[in-house]
C-alpha cells in the first residue's frame, strides 16, 4: 500500500521548480536539455530532480515538442551478414551508440533483410516515431534511402551513395587509402601487383578499385583485377582465380580485411609464403587484420569515429542545424607482417 501511495503522487515539474527556487519555465528548459540556462540555476534544477526523484513524462513531452528522442540505425542485409564474421559493423554501431548515449537519446537498431522489414521502417518514419535515421550502408539498387529523404526526416548515410543521390553522408578517403597501399607495394619492389576488389554496387568498393587503378597507371604497371563481395569466402575464391591466371604475381591489395583473410588462406593452400612470395595489404584495420596469420598490413579507417560522426550529424539535423552534406575522414596505412 505504501508503494501504491508513492506511485500515485508522482513528483511534478512544479515541485522541481519549487525545490530549486526557479520558475517552472526554467525547470522545463533544463529538463528538456537546453543549455541556455544560468549554470547555478541549471545545477539547482538537476539537484532537485535527483532529490525528489522526478521522471519526465516522455509522452507528454513528445506531444508538445513533436520529438521522440529516438533515432534508428538501419543495417542492410549485407551489413547484417557481416556481424557473424567481421567487426566493422559492430564497431560502427558502437560508435553511434556512444554518441547517442552522451546525448541522452534512444538508439533503435533495425535490420533490413526483406521487403516487409523495409516497409516497417518506412511506416515507423512516416508515423514520426523517430527523429532521425542513420543507414549503415547503401547499395546502388536500394530505394530505402531515397524514400526516407523524401519523407522529410533527417537522414545520414555511412559512405557516399553509389548513385550520387544527394543525402548527408560520412565517408572515408577510400581511393586515397587504396593508393597508399599500392604505392607501398610498388615502392617495395613488387612487380605484378593485383587487387581483389569489393562489390561494385557500394561506393567503398568502387572508390578503392579506382584508387588502385590510378596508382597502377601512375607506376606504369598493368592492372590485374579479381572481384569479391567483401566476404571471406569471396576473397579466397578471388585469390584462387588470380593465382591461376597470374601465377607470377607477387603482391595483392585486397579491398577489405575479411576478403584478405580468405586470400591468405588461399595463398597458404597454394604453398605461397607471405610476404616472401606474395605481399598482401587489406583495408579496414579491424580485429580480423590483427588476428590474421601473418598479421595483416592494412589501410586503417576510423570506424568508431565514423559512427560517432554520423550520430552527431543526424542530431544536428534534427535540431534544425545546417550540416556539411559530405564529411570524409582520413585513412592511413598500418604496417604489420604481411607486407
TrEMBL record:
The keyword Methyltransferase does not apply. One of its GO terms (molecular function) is DNA-binding transcription factor activity. It comes from the Bacteria. SMART domains: HTH_LACI. Keywords: DNA-binding, Transcription, Transcription regulation. The keyword GTP-binding does not apply. Residues 11-65 form the HTH lacI-type domain. This is DNA-binding LacI/PurR family transcriptional regulator. It comes from Actinoplanes digitatis.
